[in-house]
Sequence to fold (461 residues):
Amino acid sequence: MRIVCRCNDVTVEEIERLIDEGVTDLEELRRLLRIGMGPCQGRTCIPIVISILAKKTGKKPEEIQPPNARFPVRPVKIEALTEGGK
Amino acid sequence: MIGIIGGGIIGVATAYELAKLGEEVVVFEKRYFGSGSTFRCASGIRAQFTDEANIKLMKYSIERWKQLSDELGHNIMFQQTGYLFLATSEEEVEAFKNNIKLQNKFGVPTKLITPEEAKEIVPPLNADAFLAGAWNPEDGKASPFHTLYAYKKAGEKLGVKFYEYTKVIDIEEGWRIKTTRGEFKVDIIVNATNAWAKEINAMIGKDVVPIKPFKHQLVKTEPIERGQIEPLVCPPAWNDSYVIQDGEDGGVICGTALEYESSPDDVSPTYEFAKEVLKWAVKIVPALRHVHVIRQWAGHYARTPDNNPAIGELTENFYVAIGFSGHGFMMAPAVAQALAERIVKGRTKVPLDWEWFDPWRFERGELRSSAFQIG
Fold:
């Protein structure tokens, strides 16, 4: 078992299986497996997923658009946003 | 051949239901499936509405939700974890009692509960702030991602053709749908493009459903221990704010009514929203202040003037199921079945009030009572 996404325990095999089933859009892969939706926001896993997807679909990695970066870039404690400065 | 425009939950579920009845179906989605509103929703499913049409439709929809994992052959993670509305004033308690009476009349088992009972259901709740709760244990949640995927896979097995990154450019009488992947000849069209629906209706000269897209947002926390905030918890008087633990990973999804009228293509999050929603979230569950926010995103409520969707025939062989005003995901199983049966058999056993949801009501100057909406 080779883990790609350490936030949500997603393996290479799970990714490859979905691609084989025809899910070849990064946005769909991400949501079905929750890759890049954990605290690291995809910094670790998304480049690896893109390379797997590129290899399996014959695309160049640069043809696959990475997902939007989302706020917050790093996890923020809620009290920092509700009581900021106190 | 039936052409469905819009690859969100309504379009994809309707394609599946039509194929189940033996129809040939093609679906056009201009981006990836679910990219519009479906994948951006908060995942809640409730029958706690405040009018007969929506209560009956959602009661039936929940019956369908219960069957879906088995029927579609994929776990959509539907769970009946309930919806808990909380009252902060005596007037609100009275309003809750009236709503409960109406819901009970149509078989929805909502009941009024005490703050102590509410705290048993949601252990970290700030129960002292509330006078009573309206609790329906049959409401619930499901994964928008897995539900759409399950309907799509089941549709494919029945022969539905799904085209993604395929934008509809124009429609000609007869019907000929011109897309970025060429022209398709179909007998019947279903417009399921929700926040984008005006554009499609205008292509046939029938721009009669006045939908305005409003940007809504959500923030989500890191996963917390299961069983803390499983129901959707909402004090409507607190700006329609709510919190609910994601059924899949246990993070807390937080919403509030702060909205922006905007293009449905604008999904940029705002800092103002993060501050506002979290202010209310920590009032509902104070311990959330110690938890980390890990993401924020936006989607759109495709709102009609009365917040009820427009479902039905716009003109001969052209149907719409649009303007869901934030309720498309929860209503999809019932609406898709009703629409498919009406198109193919001319009748349906789904309790959908066609008169209530008539897409032509706005042209006639009629408005329904506003469907009960939260953040």
